[in-house]
Structures are given as structure tokens and as C-alpha cells.
Please model this.
Amino acid sequence: MIKTLFALFTLTLQLLASNYDCTIINIEAKLFPKIALLEKRIEDDKSEFLNIAILSSDIDAYFANKFKNSINAHYPDAISNKKIIVTTAIFDNNLKEKPDAVIVLYHSPQELRQIASWANKNKIISFAYDRDYLEYGLLASIYIGKSIKPYLNGATIKKYGFVFDSYLLQLSKFTQQENSQ
Model:
């Protein structure tokens, strides 16, 4: 009986945690690694790996794993001669490993600001599941509607010196938001 109640409680929490859409997760999982490879520092890096961390809260661990599995399914071998290594983590300013990119799932506004500040200072590309998170200083997101369009935070790119391939810049829509307070 206790196991059944625990299972129902866990399932309810997962369903109420956030409004994640599996189709969006799948599209973003396919596009975020490609966008990361269009950043000059990553493009020029001779490492054979592209390390991506998916940052979530405990309650969103299920969706973080769905994201991870989707990326691994899209890129089982390599992309642009780089093997993609995907991890999931709870954000901490002292993460031992500094990934090349992070995918940020739901966090409070204060946590989003902390993540953005940490990522930008460490030259880590930050992808937001929700493009509204760009207002907190995260770097990129994707609009999925009638068309699919990358969104880049122009203020963050300028302030922290991120350099993207000109093709991506022409294709993208820019926001000028960085609310770092």
C-alpha cells in the first residue's frame, strides 16, 4: 500500500512539475547540440567531445532524462567529429565539471539569474527550454510554432563575447534582454 501511494505521489509530482512538451524536448534535443557547435570557441576546440549538462530541479529529473535520452538517440555516434556526452545535474555554482553547454529546465527567476551568470562568466553556452528564460541572461532558445527559429540573447552575446557562425546569426531572432539583478 505504501509503495502504491508513493508511486502515485511521484507520478502526480512529475505531471504537475512543469508543462514540458515531449515534441518540444525532441526538437530542442536535436537542435541545441548543432547550435552549440556553431559557437567559435567550441568549433575551434580540438576536443573530441561536446559536453552538455542538463540542469534541472529534483522534481524535473524525469524530463531531464527524457532530454538526455533524446539527444543520445539523435546523436548516437558523433556530430562534427565530436561525441556528445550528456549529463544531468542539479545546479550548483561549484559544479566540478565545466560543460561546453547547459540546457536549463524550469528554475526560479533567482536561480535562472545565478545559472546565467555562472554560465556566461565561464563561457558556457546556455540553452533555455523556455525562451522567456532569456530575460534572465541565458544565451539561446528556440521558438517552435509555424516555423522553428533560434532566439539569441544579443545583450549576453555582446557582454560576454560569444561568437557564432554568421549563418546562425542571419537565421536567428534576437532579444536584447539581460536582467542580471
About this structure: The longest helix spans residues 2-17. The radius of gyration is 16 Å.
